[in-house]
Amino acid sequence: MTGRPRPAIAALPAYRPGRSAAVVEAELGVSGALKLASNEAPFGPLASVAGAISAGIESVNLYPDHGAVALRHDLATHVGVDVERVTVGAGSAGILQQILLAFCEPGDEVAMCWPSFEAYPIFAMLVEAEQVRVPLRDETFDLPALAESVGPRTRVAFVTNPNNPTGTVVGTDEIRAFLDAVPDSCLVVLDEAYSEFVTDPRVTDSSALVAEHDNLVVTRTFSKAHGLAALRVGYAVGHPDVVAMIDRTSVPFAVNDLAQRAARASLAAADEMRERVAQVVAERDRVTGELRAAGWDVPDAQANFVWMPVRERAGELAGALERRGVVTRAFADAGIRVTIADRAGDDRFLSALADAVADGGDDRGDRG
Ligand code: PMP
Description:
- This protein has helices at 7-10, 21-28, 47-56, 69-79, 91-103, 119-126, 143-149, 172-181, 207-212, 240-248, 257-268, 270-293, 314-323, 343-358, and strands at residues 34-35, 86-89, 109-114, 130-135, 154-160, 187-191, 216-221, 234-238, 305-308, 326-327, 329-331, 335-339.
- By secondary structure, the chain is an alpha/beta fold.
- The chain folds into 2 domains: 9-38 and 271-358, Aspartate Aminotransferase, domain 1; 60-268, Aspartate Aminotransferase, domain 2 (3-Layer(aba) Sandwich), CATH 3.40.640.10.
- The strands form 3 sheets. It has a 7-stranded mixed β-sheet, sandwiched between helices. The chain has a 3-stranded antiparallel β-sheet with strand order 9-12-11, covered by helices on one side.
- Helix 9 (207-212) links the parallel strand 6 (187-191) and strand 7.
- Helix 3 runs antiparallel to helix 11 (257-268), helix 5 (91-103) crosses helix 10 and helix 7 packs parallel to helix 8.
- The termini are far apart.
- The site of 4'-deoxy-4'-aminopyridoxal-5'-phosphate has 13 residues, from helix 5.
């Protein structure tokens, strides 16, 4: 070993992104594979966003605005809070990592329901915090059980709404009850990476909760609904003191200039963005209906993906789909997660699934 890495880092598992179409094509000798494995938007940039990015190319020799002041102001207006309550980072993943760096020491606890976003355990290990994993209930965050798991050493509790990979939501009233149940010494991170896709009326704007609870921080991203995953920009809304601590852990110039420009342009194109989200939501609901009509037991999908809780058949089903050119995300012994694409892409997934079943490539049993 060169140098002396911290033991916690040497033991750290790498984050595993969704398999790319190119990797699957090379591995399985298929062509024209469709990647539905990373919850990406099926669209290219809006014209106005592409224009803003192009306009920024002339100044890539200059550092971006470290404080992303203009973007923070736009976000504060968008969310309806004072600008001191907003920060930005390199994707919401960047902000989540910053939060744990700012709030956790070795031996502290980080609570989460599981399965959930696979970066949380990695960030917890990075700061040598202990993970407390509470099982989902009916594929959904079990907030009463999560509240029970919070103790005096719990510095951060994640609430992922909608949850990744299951796509389910908890109602805002349940989150309020959770916040009332946990001590102020625990920062509650409400991860709303997919909030723009939620149509369940039990979920309302979380900004009201931020005003009520100083220990709540909400994280969101431009990667999903805004379709800017490649640019890496996310934001957080919380108490000014929490925001200030998150900011202390920022890498200088974390959000690049093209990302800042694109994010501002995307916020300014709210109507077009909503229209795109509506298309994805309509497709999501269509795919959910088709899966249920075919006998699959899938939970209500509230993000830009569907979840098939096929348990121990996850790897086998994902493999059968890959051999048919459709790349999904398998979670061992839990299920597969399939990103919603456009109509043609979703139809490819549905017919690959039907084909896999017909071929016995997936010995599906009760389709649970
Ligand atoms: N939170 C959740 C629940 C996610 O699924 C993701 C992306 N897969 C992120 C955060 C991070 O997204 P980004 O860093 O692109 O904002």
